[in-house]
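Need GMC family oxidoreductase's 3D structure for a figure. Predict it.
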Amino acid sequence: MVEELDPVDVVTVGVGWTGGIIAKELAQADYEVVGLERGGDVETEDFLTAHDELGYALRYKLMQDLSRETITFRHEPEDTALPMRRYGAFLPGTGVGGAGVHWNGVTWRFLPYDFEIESRTIGEYGEEAIPEEMHLQDWGISYEELEPYFDEFERMAGISGAAGNIDGEIQDEGNPYEGPRSRDYPLPPMMETPALEVFREGAEAAGYEPFMQPSANLSEPYENTDGVQLGACEYCGYCERFGCEWGAKSSPIITVLPVAEETGNFELRTHSNVTQLLYDEDEREVTGVRYVDTQTNTVYHQPADVVALTAYVLNNVRLLLLSEIDEPYDPETGEGVVGKNYCYQNFGGQATGFFDDEEWNLYMGAGALGVAFDDINGDNFDHEELNFLHGGSVSLSQTGERPIANNPVSEDTPSWGSEFKEESLEYNHSSLSISCQGAVLPYQDNYLDLDPNYTDDYGQPLLRMTFDWHDQDYALSAYAADVCEEVMQEMGADTVEASDGLEGSFDITPYQSTHNTGGAIMGTDPDESVVNNYLQAWQAHNLFIPGASAFPHNSGYNPTGTVGALAYRAAEGIEDYLESPALLAEPET
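Structure prediction for GMC family oxidoreductase:
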């Protein structure tokens, strides 16, 4: 039996950054909001002195249980996909706050070029610059339109950084290539350590323009725009895969969610696994959601005037496919939209330097503590003679060298034994690595759909991922590897080992980044996108789908800053829709 509940104004499916922002904004506007989260609750006190590297970093305490639900993976559409049985390339989280609890905190704005990538590329290099099988498209919104939402997210989260461009005026500090911002970051940059100074000097010597990267690890105590008091980072080195014990890494559990709960209009329901969006195709609306209380196995129907699909990228796409909302993407014809334009992140370009006479305290650090340069990101450099588009940000990050996982040795050193131990001790505080975080652009044969062979605990098909690198990715990473090697040489390393870029097919086993994007992309044409620029579904006008699933491609940055901006944009759209139900952005013809 399905137990039907009383209707509410808004239900969010997932309670991370996107679900938390929407809950706060709508609850403050006096709407009744229910947040459904399939994991449990967490709070800052849970992480006090919890520097458990084995439990959190290596046994994935805050991550989804792959024994109950996972994805299947293959390289090519003709291959048979197999289940991902253990964590590797990316780490979908679970629990209240989602990835916003265990993230590092690096918080970029995508470049103006990103939002108009197709039209700007054609305007600069001609249509022939875009390979036929590359599904490049504009986002349906400009950087200038999204800038106020970026600013709103940064001031709520207390982002630390230095502006490089205020209203078109290039500043002495910060990123000179960033889009114009209306004002500076709310907090100054984090501390620049001796290791970061070495990178800055090397990058400048090589002719690049480095700056402290923007960070949600707060450089100072801060009272945000909702009156929430946040702490200052202690540089303990336990950010990535951990919750912050000091309330000094901005996250939904210390910002938007407490504010939503204080209104009395928000109800959080944990251990609530949504299995279906209830869709009326004739009326082009969702009437609510069906979910399972995983502690009692009771099945509920929660009616709502608006549903916000605010789960992780992969879960957003899977629920759309399971609920038969809009047309699934077909890689053979290129038609259909749900599952289209799945992208990842390119970390092929890297260099490690070993310093015989230098030593730094690399145990100290923070998730977003780093210096970066953007000279080879986006279209900040001439691609006329290159065989790839876009680029990436190059950085050295001092995240904290935790004792189990960090044992830097040269390539020809055995992976165990006395020589390994001797060299890992010698270089534990005397080696530095820099990398390029490269864009990944969409291709016709990279996509998401439902697997015909494997199911989850409830008998529903698992999500199937089909993805591999293309010539674009190999060329970008090889170029970036040369840049990283050049900078490391200028840094004065005695031995430099640079990657040759990506090798072979995409390997899903080693961790790379939890920067999955696409599958429910935004745009101006319902035949080419799932949502409009308010993140409102074309085929279900009371369904909003913010998050990185809306990205038509992935940039050379971490996605969270842009995710946050889109969430504020979607919250505004939901409020407009509740006041006057309608399609908020008409398709272009």
